[in-house]
């Protein structure tokens, strides 16, 4: 860590968001980036190396984000969309400005947006993370089921294990059993974590 600009990286201390680039509206305001008509660049860096950059142009009720995004080696894609702003009255007078989360169907009023491929509130990123967990669990379950079929056990990891099919070498059976156990365990673990993430959000 260190280097000019590294202070702009926000550390939430939470795995699911600490890898994202955080955009804090209080900093944008302090540096005058919310002034209508203003267009500026915003960078993140780590160890003095620039890790991400976006352009922000401000209007009266929104800022427009524009940046290039690429996932898993695919082509760079230009991302451009508005993030609407909201103002609330403070108890001691004055106003506080907020982002409204631009993710589809969200619109939460937040001070910090986290950027992966899109900038969204923490809750939206947690949801995306949870659905990744879900597909990870599905994948492990499919692999476990394939092995169950080979062994003639019938599908479904909640069902009991069977024995060695007739004519199969013990070595093959042991190897398949070993692989089955690891896929089944991974699937259970991922499912448990996924359920836990829902319980914590009280959904
Ligand atoms: Zn959101």
What does this structure look like?
The structure is a single chain. This protein is α+β, with helices and mostly antiparallel strands. It is 35% helix and 28% strand. The protein has helices at residues 15-18, 25-30, 122-151, 170-200; strands at 21-24, 39-46, 49-58, 62-69, 77-89, 95-100, 109-110, 112-115, 119-120. Strands 2-3-4-5-6-7 form a 6-stranded antiparallel β-sheet. Strands 1-8-9 form a 3-stranded antiparallel β-sheet. Zinc ion binds next to α3.
| Number of helices, counting only DSSP H or I runs of 4 residues or more | 4
Low-confidence regions: 1-17
For the secondary structure, the number of strands is 9
Give the overall pLDDT as a whole number: 82
What is the topology, as strand order, of the major beta sheet?
Answer: 2-3-4-5-6-7
Largest β sheet strand count, sense and barrel closure: 6 strands, antiparallel
User: What share of the residues does DSSP label as strand, in percent?
Assistant: 25-35%
**Percent range of helical residues:** 25-40%
Summarize the helix and strand pattern as letters: HEHEEEEEEEEHH
What structural class should be given to the helix and strand makeup? alpha+beta
Entry keywords:
binds zinc ion; 4 helices; alpha+beta; 203 residues; 9 strands; six-stranded antiparallel beta sheet; elongated
Topology:
Layout (H helix, E strand, L loop, with lengths): L14 H4 L2 E4 H6 L8 E8 L2 E10 L3 E8 L7 E13 L5 E6 L8 E2 L1 E4 L3 E2 L1 H30 L18 H31 L3
Antiparallel strand pairs: 1-8, 2-3, 3-4, 4-5, 5-6, 6-7, 8-9
Zinc ion binds next to helix 3.
